Amino acid sequence: MSRFAAVAFDLDDTLCRHDHDVTALYRRAFEEAGVEPFGEPEELWPLLDGPPDPDDRVGYLGAGFARLAAQHGRDVDPVALAAAFESVADESRVAFLPGASDALAAAAAAGPVGVLTNGPEDRQRAKIEALGLNDLVDAIVYAGDLPRRKPHAEPFERLTAALSVDAAETLYVGNSLSYDVAGAHNAGLRSAWLRADPDEAAAPYRPDYVLDSLAEFPGLLSEGYGAESGESETTEAEEGR
Questions:
Q1: Do 205 and 140 sit in the same domain of this protein?
Q2: Residues 119 and 141 in one domain
Q3: How far from chain centre, in Å, is Cα 207?
Q4: What is this structure's pTM?
Q5: Contact 151, 179 (CB under 8 A)
Q6: Which cofactor does it need (predicted)?
Q7: Element containing residue 182 per DSSP (H, E)
Q8: In this structure, what are the phi and psi dihedrals at residue 114, rounded to the nearest 5 degrees?
Q9: In 13-167, where does DSSP find H-type helix?
Q10: Which of 59, 129, 143, 184 gets the highest tally of CB atoms within 10 A of its CB?
């Protein structure tokens, strides 16, 4: 028996990831912009400020390209380069993360299932359709189309209303402490943090559960989860104490 009435998931880097040849995509962006290539994708990503801005992805990428151009001594229009990158990217080129299909099936066996993404529908719909999520979940909320996105409570409230469940009985699974865990806390949901690095500490946030892989998720739904493994609630070590 599940300890939750419903489960919901974040989308990007929780259920799925892009399935592009990133190097080829990077080169195509320069070609589209008519700019001689410089740098590598691995150099660009650390220069971006946090998660993408759903309202201004071109500006978000442009800031990274501006920093990269300065490091390479190049005089380019970083916004035009970012716009070219966006124009050649195919949002439908996504794949489930390992364990995602089993996690969705386990959640569906326990109760209604939702997806809450911070992106707008016109960007995220292609991913949803490519993954077949319309047939796998009961509700999808595109917070990018709402007045407030995660970590505000409104998107979570829309989600629990669509699933017809109480917030306190709902588990939200996501990879971001500052958006997913903080947002779930603000809206009264339980949270499971899917961390990318097993050495990463949750502090100063306090997720209810910590997962190193979605393969661990089906066991989390069990009433007895953590009784012997000690993995259910966030430990002092995971809080960074």
A1: yes
A2: yes
A3: 16
A4: 0.79
A5: yes
A6: Mg(2+)
A7: helix 182-187
A8: -130, 165
A9: 22-33, 41-44, 57-71, 78-88, 100-110, 121-131, 154-163
A10: 184
